[in-house]
UniProtKB/TrEMBL annotation:
Record key words, sorted: Signal, Transport
Signal peptide region: 1-26
Location of region: Disordered: 29-54
A biological-process GO annotation: maltose transport
Record has NADP as a keyword: no
Low complexity biased stretches: 29-49
Listed transmembrane segments: none
Name recorded for this polypeptide: Extracellular solute-binding protein
Native species: Paenibacillus thalictri
GO MF assignments: maltose binding
InterPro entries per the UniProt record, alphabetical: SBP
Lineage: superkingdom: Bacteria
GO CC list: ATP-binding cassette (ABC) transporter complex, substrate-binding subunit-containing
Length: 547
């Protein structure tokens, strides 16, 4: 791998280690530095004659740093050895050496990689939230390349998609018009994949309907505790306290028309939910439920999915907010082996009034920053790297990335791809595990709406239930770009704000601090500079909307 002779990256990496949390700089970027290459040349770029033709005739190889799906490591330690990696090399004609960070250590190893000045040709990571100053700063620091000319010359497949979809085009640019990644593009039916769910067999036994309001949820959870013996009627994962905390995707909190994060209000203004007046009411509700034993008393210790698995499958919990496949599907598959009656069902995001549309919930954007690839300034042959990346957006490439190898992992039936029995009926591994050998579950490619890991009707029904929210109006985009100086300010301020907010959130819910101290808590957060952060995000959001 070629070295980048740029001393700036050392200091930048130090900043990363100090400031890189998803909440701190989830929307960070920067102003252009004079040293940065221009976004476009003055003359029109002529596409390379062989652009879009595969396999490429070359003796050169590429290097890629990217996370490997944990399911795949049960079969192969490196993507190059997997059927997917071998097939991608065969179809593109380009050999790639992959480096994978250890599971759970991606952030730390990314920081070390940037500090090393010894970069691979491409890096798959979240350049929006994990590089201080965001993608525009990364370009100015000569860590990654602006891709405008490279896409024009060597990426006809991605270029066509950007011309057809102006909203996607806007998402992939900095404020000054530079493309910076090859994106993971979710299909329209892949934007909602997490939400509230309950034990349907328990509801039926207790003759209770699926709850839709906060009051109905209270009735259900109380019945789960008193009549089913659930010791943690409602549980959920607690993820990285400085980012997500109690990972309920604003269920219950959203009923009060606020969020446990920065969000966009009905007037298009950025707000910090945890200091909204109505957030106090949400905290009071959660404290009441906790005090009555309706919320898992150990919720702040649920750091990984295994603790949730145990509670759901041991009948300690009857409700949670979880993933469609990695939650509902996984639990249904295991639970039914233990008890054929075991059944989970999706519930709407709860509201205060019957028939009200939920204010917010989980809904992602079609562009998924963490699973997108940038070409580094160390790339030996950027044109070759871009040709390799563009293959994933071709018709044949998209089939490989989504479904794998025809005749092995899937076949086409009635014009539609269907996973093979080899994938769906393995006695030891489930579909997601098996298909991870043949596809890239997350990464820079065009997602196919026909791909589904659902094995139960309840999963198919869940998306239609969870998507009925106004999340598309209220979730703040993760790819708005504060300027360099603004990003530094946001990172510095949000470090203290996020830490204190989460500390107090847990104390309020557990009753270690009385809700009466909410006004003092709000004042302290404002004193820490939350209004300044909100204004920075507002300016960046306004610029994004004008792109």
């Amino acid at each position: 791998m070629k070295q980048v002779s740029n001393p700036k990256t050392i200091s930048i990496a130090v900043s990363v280690m100090i400031a890189s949390t998803g909440l701190l700089s989830a929307c960070s970027s920067s102003k252009e530095s004079p040293a940065a290459p221009p976004a476009k040349s003055s003359a029109p770029v002529q596409p390379a004659a062989d652009a879009g033709k595969y396999p490429v005739s070359t003796t050169e190889s590429l290097s890629s740093w990217e996370q490997i799906n944990p399911n795949a490591t049960a079969f192969f330690p490196n993507l190059a050895d997997a059927p997917f990696g071998k097939q991608l090399e065969k179809e593109t004609g380009i050999k790639v050496k992959y480096t994978h960070p250890a599971d759970g250590q991606a952030k730390e190893q990314f920081n070390l990689l940037i500090a090393s000045n010894n970069l691979p040709d491409v890096i798959e990571y979240d350049w929006n939230s994990q590089y201080p100053g965001g993608p525009q700063k990364a370009i100015a620091d000569k860590v990654i390349l602006p891709l405008n000319d490279l896409i024009d010359k060597n990426a006809p497949n991605l270029k066509k998609l950007l011309q057809q979809d102006k909203e996607l085009d806007k998402m992939l640019k900095t404020d000054d018009g530079k493309y910076y990644v090859f994106p993971m593009i979710r299909p329209d039916n892949g934007l909602v994949f997490r939400g509230p769910m309950l034990r349907k067999d328990w509801l039926d036994e207790l003759q209770l309907p699926v709850p839709t309001t906060v009051d109905e949820w209270y009735t259900v959870l109380k019945a789960f505790k008193e009549k089913k013996g659930a010791t943690a009627p409602f549980t959920a994962q607690y993820v990285n306290s400085s980012i997500n905390g109690f990972d309920i995707q604003d269920a219950f909190i959203g009923a009060y028309h606020t969020a446990n994060r920065y969000y966009v209000d009905d007037q298009g203004k950025i707000k910090y939910g945890p200091i909204d007046p109505q957030f106090k009411d949400a905290l009071a509700l959660l404290h009441k439920w906790y005090a009555e034993g309706l919320i898992d008393k150990d919720f702040a210790l649920n750091a990984d999915s295994k603790s949730i698995d145990s509670k759901i499958l041991s009948n300690a919990s009857g409700a949670t907010v979880g993933l469609l496949a990695g939650g509902m599907g996984k639990w249904m598959e295991t639970g039914k082996k233990q008890d054929p009656k075991f059944q989970l069902v999706a519930a709407p995001y709860p509201t205060l009034k019957q028939g009200e549309r939920p204010f917010i919930g989980q809904r992602d954007f079609k562009y998924n920053p963490p699973a997108s690839k940038a070409v580094t300034a160390a790339a030996k042959n950027p044109d070759l790297a871009v040709k390799w990346l563009d293959y994933a957006y071709s018709e044949k490439g998209a089939m490989l990335f989504n479904f794998g190898i025809e005749g092995e992992s899937y076949s086409v039936q009635n014009g539609k791809p269907a996973f093979s029995d080899k994938m769906t009926k393995d006695p030891k591994y489930n579909l997601q595990q098996m298909i991870s050998q043949y596809t890239k579950p997350n990464g820079p490619f065009l997602g196919d709406p026909r791909k589904s890991f659902n094995t139960f009707k309840e999963q198919d029904d869940a998306v239609g239930i969870w998507e009925k929210t106004d999340a598309n109006k209220h979730v703040m985009p993760l790819f708005i770009t504060p300027t360099t100086e603004e990003s530094k300010e946001v990172a510095k301020l949000n470090t203290a704000i996020a830490s204190y907010k989460e500390e107090m959130f847990v104390k309020f819910v557990m009753g270690k601090e009385p809700i009466d101290k909410f006004d003092e808590y709000v004042k302290r957060i404002k004193d820490m500079g939350s209004d300044k952060v909100v204004q920075i995000y507002q300016n960046a959001y306004d610029r994004y909307n004008k792109r």
